[in-house]
Design goal:
alpha/beta, TIM Barrel, M1 Pyruvate Kinase, Domain 3, 2 domains, eight-stranded parallel β-barrel, six-stranded antiparallel sheet, 11 helices, 33% helix, globular
Amino acid sequence: MDIYGTLGPACSDTDTLEAMFRAGMTGVRLNLSHVALRDAADQLSRLREAAECCGIQPKLLIDMQGPELRVGALPSPLSLETGSAVTLGHGGIPVPALALPHLTPGREVLLDDGKLLLRVTENRDDAATALVIRGGLLQSRKSIALPGAEVHPPAMTEADRANIRDAADFGVTGVMQPFVRSREDLEAVREALDAAGGAHIRLFAKIENLDGAARLRELLPAADEIVIARGDLGNAQPLWKLPALQKRIAAQCRAAGKPFMVVTQMLASMEQSPVPTRAEVSDIFNAVMDGASSVMVTGETAVGRWPVEVIRYLANTAHEAERFEV
């Protein structure tokens, strides 16, 4: 089974990456919401050097921008205090123009995978005012979710298309398409990959909204692997409904013989702690027992304090589940 970490400042040096490979990592994810593939050339060179030291051919997944809505660039991280009022749009937090018509009074706005929660109180042509219900620190390029709103950005951004053109040259083995809504989304990415000499590159369909989950059967033939992306999938419904949906997606993938990956907060506590919670290792174990062919961590290795230990716990727990017999 594949064990993926995510590249970031906490694991950007060769020694740390080598230790992560020795701890069980088989591949890495590069989040292209914040950087272009070409701009990560030095980082990818260190990755290959570390893998070569371990005798490993690393898998490289690029996570594209796709149709996800994101906050624009901020001059510096912004502290949003619970109970305060903030402006979204002109003169405030930059948001995509196509989101503005949906910022109607009463609309909930989830930022940074739901860590922050706002409620719109007033809407104008170029901006909206919102009350901070659950505050925290907001950084540039963090996700925006508008539960219940039907916003339809294109499947790929211009940056995505540029990264796809470079994918084969940089040794990319898989492309992760976010917020898949239809089979047409996947077919558009596949066509772009094939045209760029990337016919060998696998296509991962991230299920992050209820549309994608509802249309999973039509998506399965167009994807090489399904990703149960629990961050925004948890924003799209009450959190207590998420485990059942994860189980249903896993069951459909097993029935179709389609590999699937489970991601998001698998070892979230280890961003600060060298030891995970019992609930986290149980989550990993159960995901593998449900048939996951790969598991992945994100911020835990990208910005966490213990990237090597994260991979050690992730790999050891996953392999323990593979060996388990009742």
